[in-house]
Amino acid sequence: MTNPGPQYQPQQPGQPYPPQEQPKKKRGGCMKWGAIIIGVLVALFVITGLAGGFDESEEATGDQSTTTSAEAPPSSADQATSTSREEAASSPVAAPAARGQGPRCTPADGPMLALLEAGLEDPSLTLTNGTMIVSGEDTWVGATTLDGDGEMESRSDVWLFRNSVPFTVTGGARSATPAYAPASGIGASAGDEAAQAVDGCVVEQTR
Fold first, then answer.
1. What are the start-end ranges of the H helices in 72-141?
2. What is the pLDDT of residues 105-145, one digit of tens each?
3. Residue 12 forms part of a structural domain
């Protein structure tokens, strides 16, 4: 025989109703969302802190590199280059040889040229390109003779000074300064090596 289930029994007058159970709030859901929000905030804080620390590290590294580069002493190669440049700057530069002047030729002394010009038979003539070679006690002097208009009268003439006395060496010198004795009288001639050398220096200056 089947047991009948609970049957409805009407509320008797004056009998209080049994208290109804209130639905329980789900506290677990609120706590879960709060934990998520706190976790997100913490993660953002950590990421921001790491990014700031990375930037500061880069700046510090850049400053250290700049400081190291500025304070680094010059290397041996740099010092050697700097020393070479200073020596080159302080070393006197040799003056180039005058045009037409060979290794033995030098500009003639003014008093010697003045003495030769004083002996010119034609007072309108002048001497230029004065060059000399000193060989022992002898001084060979070459010069170009110009006429009164500045035109070339003779490209090169050579004289010889021995003991400060002038002698004529070339034919042009004898013609221009006949008052001076020929160098042949003291055993010198236009064929001497020094005479040819000083003559070549004068000729070179006229080209």
1. 76-90, 110-118
2. 999 999 999 999 999 999 999 999 999 999 999 999 999 99
3. no
Contact 159, 138 (CB under 8 A): no
The domain containing residue 169 runs over which residues? 106-205
> What is the Cα–Cα distance from 193 to 198, expressed in whole angstroms?
9
pTM assigned to the model? 0.52
How big is the CA angle at 100 (ends 98 and 103), to the nearest 5 degrees? 75
**Coil, strand or helix at 51:** helix
Same structural domain, 194 and 138: yes
Q: Is residue 79 part of a domain?
A: no
For 3: left if phi > 0, alpha if psi spans -120 to 50, otherwise beta; the answer is: beta
The verdict on residue 16 lying in a domain is no
